[in-house]
Amino acid sequence: MEGAIALSAGLRVNGILKVLDLSYNGFGNEGALALGEALRVNSSLLHLDISCNRINDEGIRLMCKGLESNETMRVLKLSRNPITVEGAITLLSSITRRPESRMEELDVSNVLVNERFLSLLGSASISRPTLHVLYAGKKGFIGKRPSTRPDPMRVIQDFLDERKLRLLDFFKNMDKDGSMSVPVSDFCRYLAAAGLHLDAAQMDSLVQRLDKDQTGTIDYRDLVDSRKKMVMEQRKQQRRRERRERQERQRSERALKSFHNAVRALTPPPAPREGPASSASSAHFSVTSCSSWYQEGEPADEVSSPHIHNAGSDDLDAECYYQSGWSLASQSHTEPVPLKRNTPSSPNIK
Known about the structure:
Elements: H1 2-13, E1 19-21, H2 28-41, E2 47-49, H3 57-67, E3 75-77, H4 85-97, E4 105-112, H5 115-127, E5 132-137, H6 152-163, H7 167-174, E6 181-183, H8 184-194, H9 200-210, E7 217-219, H10 220-266, H11 282-294
Parallel strand pairs: 1-2, 2-3, 3-4, 4-5
Antiparallel strand pairs: 6-7
Helix pairs in contact: 1-2, 1-10, 2-3, 2-10, 3-4, 4-5
């Protein structure tokens, strides 16, 4: 990730590079995020190959945030990445959303697309006849989690919440003799009569949970304990989900922070503004910029300011401060040579 971010930061400030091949690297989603931030600003790159970089649908979504602002990219290759048709739709939508985009070739050649993708591609082809998209073929599908039956205790709790009933009141309605225990058959019959929509599998699971010892009866205490366990499990799942989302958000924030730090390190500082004292010589200006490290080895009272000098030093020029090979045009940083000090035989000493 560090290499991907550093390279993306360099790409952001680069204004010459036209073709960049980054295939078969482990950029991942954080690298895709950094690339998107670079493409948001870069206006020179025409061809980018990031095939086989472990970028999934989430990485495509992060990269598209910056890709939408790019107006110069012509070719984008994303083959051999774990992208589904959902990521391909996100990518094609971000490219065709803005008329300023100049994309001509999009390579997602390992993705099986579906009717939705083909419909979107057909609409894009009308306004962008030069756009060519490579994909594996039809029969793609958007993966969905299999539908699971809700927890039967959750169904009972929702039933109570809708009618603003307590669990105790709910149980007393089926407990005619007040023993706080009912037969399993009466319990199942009452749930069906009350309108709780539980299929046979859910009912069997609920009975096995409430009658673990297979006594043929269900106690009120077992019902309370089962609801308590259900609430605790739901809270654990919620905390796990929030922790996972927080970790993903923190990874993205760290990647963005590292990217912007790298950009600041690569961006040259702004040129100093010339004030009213710009009439000073260029040699004096250069001495001022390096005077801090020069004064480290000299006493403060023996170092002359570049603007305040002793009598007889009017002819002191830049050669007293730098080696003769240094020039303002070269902008090279050479080691300073010591100042020429007045000897006791000098008539200028005071």
